[in-house]
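Morning!

As promised:
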Amino acid sequence: MSQPIIKIDNMNKWFGDFQVLKDINLEVEKNKKIVVCGPSGSGKSTLIRCINRLEEHQKGTIVVDGNELSENTKNIEAIRAEVGMVFQQFNLFPHLSILDNCTLAPIWVKKMPKKKAEELALDQLKKVQIDDQAHKFPGQLSGGQQQRCAIARALCMEPKIMLFDEPTSALDPEMIKEVLDAMVTLAKAGMTMIVVTHEMGFAKEVADEVIFMDEGMIVERAETKEFFANPKSDRTKLFLSQIL
Amino acid sequence: MISKNFTTNLYLGSFLILISLIDVTLNSFFKLNFTNFLPGSISFFLPLILGTIGLYLIRSDYTGLKQLDILNKNVNTSNFNAVLTLLIIFLIIKAIPPSMSWMILDANISGDSREACTGTGACWTYIKVWFKRFMYGMYPNELHWRINAAFILVIVLGMAGLLATEKLKKYLALYYVIIYPIIAFLIIYYLISGGAFGLEWVETGAWGGLSLTFIVSFFCLIFCFPLGMIFALGRRSSLPTVRYISIGYIEFWRGVPLITVLFMSSVMFPMFLPEDFFMDKLVRVIIAITLFEAAYCAEVIRGGLQALPRGQYDAAKSLGMGYWKMHIFVILPQALKLVIPGIANTFLALVKDTPLIFVVGLAEIAGMLALAKTNPEWLGFAMEGYIFASIIFWIICYAMSKYSYNLEAKYKTER
C-alpha cells in the first residue's frame, strides 16, 4: 500500500453549537477515486471543503500531501494550489473571459509566463471541448459549458487532487452527461478525485470506493461493487433503495 | 374597437382639450381672455373644466389608435390624474413667457458697467464683467495662462492612460492611483503657486473661482477613492484591530458635518501643530474633504463587496490565491463595477459640497458670487449669479453622471 495523499484523523467540526462533522477518519491513496454520497445536510460538502480549508475544522488533524492544515496561511495557499476544486455553482469569474479565468491563477499564483499559461489553458480547454469558446465570457456559455470550463480552470493549476462538490446538481439533465464525460476522462487519466455527487451511474463507472455519510458521520465505506451489491448498514440500504 | 358613439366622443373631447389649451396659451402669451364675458372665477377655471371633460370623453380601455392608447394608459387613467396633467401643462405654458422675457427678451448683455442694465430683465453684463473673477478668483489677470496651462497638462496626462499598449496595461492602475496624483499635484503646485522656475509666487488665498472648484474636486476625488477602498476592505477584515480602526474611522467621519470638519481644519488644526510647521490652508482643506468623503466611499464600496456571492471568494481561494491577489484580480474588479452608480453619487455630492470651503475663506465659484454680489457697484444681481453658477454646476455634474453611465456600459460583461 502506498502512502495516503490525504489523511484525516478524528476530525470534528462545529457551526456554532451544531456539530456538522463527527470523528471523521479517512485516508485516500494516490490515484484513487472516491465518491461521497448521502442525504443533504449530512456534511459531505463540508467534509471536502475542509480538505482545502475553505472551512476550518476545530478538532483533529488533516494532512494533505504531507502538509498539515493549520493556521499557517502560506502553507494553506500552497496546499490549495495543489488541490483543485469544482463547485456546484461553477463560480467562474464573470468579469474575465474563459481563457483569462483559466490563466489567472497559473500566472499570478504559480508565476507561470503568460504565453505558457495560455498554451496550457487552451490545452485543458480542448480536453473538455470548449477551446472554441475561449474568448467568450462565462455569462455567454451554457451551464454545462461553464462547469467544464471550471474543471479546466482547476486543472490549469496542475493539481494533485481534484475535489468535486456536487458538480452536476445545478445543471439541466441534458448537460449533466457532458460534464460527467469530462470527469470520466479525467478519472481514466489517473487523477486522485473525491467527488460528492448523487450520480450513482458515475460512481459505478469510475469510483474505486464509495463513502456513505449521514448526520456528520461516515456510516459506510466500501469498494464500489461491494457497496452497491450488499450494503451493510440499514441506513445505506434505505438511501440506496430511494436513490436507485 | 371604436364604436360610432366613441368616435363622436373622440372628436368632441379633442375639440374641448384644444380649446382649453388655446385659451391658456392666448392668456399667457398675449394677455387675451376670450372668455371674459363670463364671471371671473368661472372664466379662470374654464380651461381646466373643459380640458377635464375633454379627457373624460376620450378615455377608453382600448381603441387601437396607438397614441391615444398610450395617453390613456399613462396619464389619462382617472379624472384626478387628468386634472393633475392639465394643471402641470397649464403651469408650464404660464411660466414660459415671464421666464423667457426675464432671461432673454428683456435682458441686457452689452456694455461693461452697471448703467448698461436698463431693462427689466436679467443683467448678463454682470456675469460678463465678472467672468474672469468667477473663473480664476483673485488670481492676477496676467498670470491666468498658468492656470490654463496647468489644467491642460493635467488633462493630457490623465488621458495618457488611453494610449497604453497591451504591455503597459497592467501598470495602469498603479499609474492612476499613485503616479498620476503625484505628478498632477506637482504640476498644480509649481505652475499655479509658482515660486520656482522664475514663476512669481501666488498665495493660495488668491486662488478661486471655477478653477479652485476643479482643483479641490479633482484632488479630493482621486485621493478619497483609494482611501475609501482601503477602509472598505478594512471593515471586512478578519483582523480585529484593522476592523475596529476602520469602523471607528468610518463612523467618526460620517457622524460629523463637513462644515465643522472644514472649520476644524483651518482654525483648530494649526493650533495643535508645532509653531514652525506650516501647512497651506488649501492643502488642509483638501485633506479634510478627502478624509470626510473617503468614509462615504468606503461604505459604498463595502456594499459592492457584500453583493458578491461567497462562491467567488471560494473559487479564488481554491485556486491558491492569497488575500491580496484574490481582492485585486477577482473581488475588487467585480465589486467596483457594481458600485459605479453609488460612487458617482458620492462624487457628485462631493463636487457640490466644495462651495462649503467658503467658510474658511476660500472662494470657489459660488464663493466668488457671494463676494461679487456684495460689491457696492453691483448690488442686486444675486439672481443672475446664482443662475450662472447653477448652470455651471449642472454641466459639470451632468458630464460626470454621463461618464458614469458610459463606464457602466463599458464594463458590462456578464448576463
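The first strand of chain A starts at residue 4 and ends at 15.

Hope this helps with the figure draft.
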